[in-house]
Amino acid sequence: MAKVIMVQGTMSNAGKSLLVAGLCRIFQQDGYRVAPFKSQNMALNSFVTKEGLEMGRAQVMQAEAAGISPMVCMNPILLKPTNHIGSQVIVNGEVLGNMSARDYFAYKRELIPDIKRAFNKLESFVDIIVIEGAGSPAEINLKENDIVNMGLAEMVDAPVLLVGDIDRGGVFAQLLGTLMLLTDGERERVKGLIINKFRGDASILEPGIQMLEERGNVPVTGVVPYMELSLEDEDSLSERFLEKEVGLIDIAVIHYPRISNFTDFHVFEQIPGVSVRYVTSVRELQHPDLIFLPGSKNTMGDLKWMRQNGLEAAIKQRSEEVPVFGICGGYQMLGFEIRDPAGVEEGGNIRGMELLPVLTVLQKEKKHCQTKGNINMLPGILYPISASAFEGYEIHMGETTWIKEGKEKELEYEPEQKKSGQTACEVVVTGKNPNVYGSYIHGLFDTGNIADQIVQALAEKKGVTIKEGMSEDYHAFKERQYDQLADTLREYLNMEEIYGMLREAHLE
């Protein structure tokens, strides 16, 4: 059996995902076959595997750090919130259905066999599994029938590292309070405490660490500094959503309530001179050089939100001067109409933004697949990325058709692309406004130098200079980030103690 170790947090956004990624990288560097695991993830950022199965992006990031291909068994349960009280439930990469929070709470124990099978599959080919918990193990209302924190740790006999976030304040109360709310058996599983996101001189923490260890009876395994990294993180708590200064090239991403897969735009953040701002109002929108409409878990609801707060009108006005690019749900919004005859989202029909000559009909069956090909010829400012090779994936519950001369027409692909098994990138433009683009392809900008070419085109139009080639290949950039993460953890964590926890795991 593989050795296991689990990272749990005192709260959401304590840094569990990055610590798991960093440990995966360290173990991989040390010559072990390692994989991440999270039994249940609640996220709107998702990914499609080679098999066409859907999983959370956090485990994809961790798999990249581990040097292995993402597999859906790393995240057997994915919850994608559709509103404040319900989520789409995805099990083993396939949609099970929509459930309210209460219904899922009553049902979730039925998924334990799926969790065990997924974990056992990982065990069959790796040496170490690094498990990520969710939220906090001390959520009293959620502890019954727990399948993601201490319930999972007991299920797979995992030692636990408990992480607290000092950047948000009260880290000693976080850690000690969490330990106090655990049962005796659960406390025995906690083998080390980690103080995360520290800024300053760690020596000033020594009195607090001494008291924490005395009262909690658990050693502090490390004090990890705040790290300036550009890696994918969990949804709504992302620091990417905080207000930023406007760069030489300014990109605005519309941050609607059910934004999903905003990882599509991370590649632009590593290009010097480019700002990527997530905006929620006309005031924040200002006058960017490019506007992205990202994916959405509730396309109709988010379109209504833009309509009500004035963003729709502002975007339509800006589209006369700057490019507007919709991905997935954003692409659907840019069309003439969205229809929901099966009640997938809100039912009925809604007028789109009428910027692209397309119509979308939402359907119960979700399309999720990887895809690659070449971008079709584009007019307007994005002409330079025409014919560029791309790799990406699609996740959507709608079929989109062109409207031409008042008639609906199915989207068609070039015959040679059909023969090669590739699909054309569905980048659709309107002849009336060459500034408006749409695509279903997530990850479209990650391939090659597509993002860099877009920035260069924007810079030329604006009359400013962004040094060409300043951005490195995005995949190489992420590899360097994982190495930097591992180097930092090696310096500030007691890895000898952590390896000791692994050696003790699964002792009969």
From TrEMBL:
<dbReference type="InterPro" id="IPR029062">
    <property type="entry name" value="Class_I_gatase-like"/>
</dbReference>
<feature type="active site" description="Nucleophile">
    <location>
        <position position="328"/>
    </location>
</feature>
<dbReference type="Pfam" id="PF07685">
    <property type="entry name" value="GATase_3"/>
</dbReference>
<comment type="similarity">
    <text>Belongs to the CobB/CobQ family. CobQ subfamily.</text>
</comment>
<feature type="active site">
    <location>
        <position position="442"/>
    </location>
</feature>
<feature type="domain" description="CobB/CobQ-like glutamine amidotransferase">
    <location>
        <begin position="250"/>
        <end position="449"/>
    </location>
</feature>
<comment type="pathway">
    <text>Cofactor biosynthesis; adenosylcobalamin biosynthesis.</text>
</comment>
<comment type="function">
    <text>Catalyzes amidations at positions B, D, E, and G on adenosylcobyrinic A,C-diamide. NH(2) groups are provided by glutamine, and one molecule of ATP is hydrogenolyzed for each amidation.</text>
</comment>
<keyword id="KW-0315">Glutamine amidotransferase</keyword>
<dbReference type="InterPro" id="IPR011698">
    <property type="entry name" value="GATase_3"/>
</dbReference>
<dbReference type="InterPro" id="IPR047045">
    <property type="entry name" value="CobQ_N"/>
</dbReference>
<dbReference type="InterPro" id="IPR004459">
    <property type="entry name" value="CobQ_synth"/>
</dbReference>
<dbReference type="Pfam" id="PF01656">
    <property type="entry name" value="CbiA"/>
</dbReference>
<dbReference type="InterPro" id="IPR033949">
    <property type="entry name" value="CobQ_GATase1"/>
</dbReference>
<feature type="domain" description="CobQ/CobB/MinD/ParA nucleotide binding">
    <location>
        <begin position="5"/>
        <end position="228"/>
    </location>
</feature>
<dbReference type="InterPro" id="IPR027417">
    <property type="entry name" value="P-loop_NTPase"/>
</dbReference>
<keyword id="KW-0169">Cobalamin biosynthesis</keyword>
<protein>
    <recommendedName>
        <fullName>Cobyric acid synthase</fullName>
    </recommendedName>
</protein>
<dbReference type="InterPro" id="IPR002586">
    <property type="entry name" value="CobQ/CobB/MinD/ParA_Nub-bd_dom"/>
</dbReference>
